[in-house]
Amino acid sequence: MTLAGKRIVLGVTGGIAAYKAVEISRRLVDAGAHVVPVMTEGAARFLGPTTLSALASEPVRTRLWDDPATPIPHTEIGQAADLILVAPATARIIAAYRMGLSTDLLTNVLIATRAPVMICPAMHTEMWEHPAVVENIAVLRARGVRIVEPESGRLAGGDVGTGRLADPAAIVAAVVREFAPRDLDGLSMVVSAGGTREPIDAVRVIANRSSGKQGYAIAEEAAARGASVTLVSTVERPVPAGVEVVRVETADQMHAAMERIAPDSDVVVMAAAVADFRPVRVAAGKIKKHAGIPEIELEPTPDILAALGERKPAGQVLVGFAAETDDLAANAMSKLERKRLDLIVANDVSAPATGFQHDTNAVTLFTRGEPPITLPLADKRTIAAGVLDKIVAIRHAAAG
Ligand code: PMT
User: Fold this and answer.
1) What pLDDT is recorded for position 342?
2) Domain total of the chain
3) Do residues 361 and 214 both lie within one domain?
4) Which end of the chain is less crowded, N or C, counting CB atoms within 10 A of the terminal residue's CB?
5) 1 falls in which pLDDT band (50, 70, 90)?
């Protein structure tokens, strides 16, 4: 009963995904939580309050006024909560919460609480990608609001795109993690994320498909568990709360940043996809098409991880990733040895929904002299949690 004793306000707003709140509520109750359901008027058009009441811990509240139990339901609900979870969250509730508007019971509860707030957006892709929604989410994230990103898939009306409510199991896993012990308190950690870009000329680069999602998820999870985290990143993504970002572009720049930060870090995680080769010469201007097909001579980039492995301070946990398409175990183990790592996280990037760009990943954790651990397909934050659990175990084993 991982959520025993936790009082969770489940805010449900008016979208087609409102019906999934029933499963979320049931899972939270199964995990031991006391679920206080609050629905907006819009939500009640999609989901019968009686249904949600039956699967929550108390009857649904919808009104700010005329509550038979109390004249001030919003403060009582907000003050007593251990967490406010809004699932699904519409563009309207996200905007209202960002602005601090208090127009109905749920918006009042949201601003009458000091408990952590977790928002699970669900809307059409056009709405999710609208600059106003993007900005509102960025502001809420910067304030420390937890965002459970929507997934890609079928949306209402048969459209396909990003905006579908995250899987109820993933939402409940995020809630469970919220109450996880702060087992990285006091640790300093550096994480690399994204793909490096090696210039060919003034406009062209050699790049790869890394989105940085996996590296950012590790940084976000580590910060939530108490670590002081620096992200060395090549990509522009919303910065997780409490994480410091150092922007780089090339392998050389990433190398310099990692060499500077790693010696003072308790944990180093290289989740970035670093180019293995770069052009020997970078043309000053744009190489002209009419000059014929250019021959671009390549040279190897520095192996950042191997260099960090050579100078690893005592007690540091050094973690690499391995992006493989075949012989996963053999290739990963050889990288573990060659780069003197404590842990390598191998992903089969040819498998469906795994590795580059996806919101999900599936990995195997290899260490020396222990059986590998498989983390099955899950959102990248859940994978990050599994990787961090293993890092904690390595540190405990080293401490005796
Ligand atoms: O960013 P996403 O879209 O979320 O995708 C995640 C990911 C697929 C990029 C991530 O899960 C991953 O696998 N990252 C490592 C990719 C990679 O470069 O793997 P590799 O097997 O080529 O390299 C092995 C390790 O050496 C990696 O930790 C890499 O960061 C490091 N390396 C590689 C080359 C180099 N010149 N210097 C390095 O430090």
Assistant:
1) 98
2) 2
3) yes
4) C
5) low
Q: Whose CA is nearest to atom 13 of ligand 1?
A: 323
C-beta of residue 270 within 8 angstroms of C-beta of residue 279? no
C-alpha span between 361 and 377 (Å, rounded): 5
320 alpha carbon to ligand 1 midpoint, in Å?
A: 7
Active site residue 208: yes
Give pTM, 2 decimals: 0.72
Of 67, 6, 66, the C-alpha closest to 36 is 6
Nearest residue to 217 (alpha-carbon basis) of 271, 163, 164: 271
The answer as to whether 1 is a domain residue is no
Bridge partners, 229 (sequence order): 189, 243
pLDDT tens string 147-159: 999 998 877 777 7
CA 135 distance to own-chain centroid: 18
Tens of pLDDT, residue by residue over 243-254, are 999 999 999 999
- Going by CA atoms, what residue is nearest to atom 18 of ligand 1? 273
- Counting atoms of ligand 1 from 1, which one is nearest the CA of 216? 4
Neighbours of 57 (CB within 10 A): 16
- Give the range of the structural domain holding residue 314, as residue numbers without chain letter: 188-399
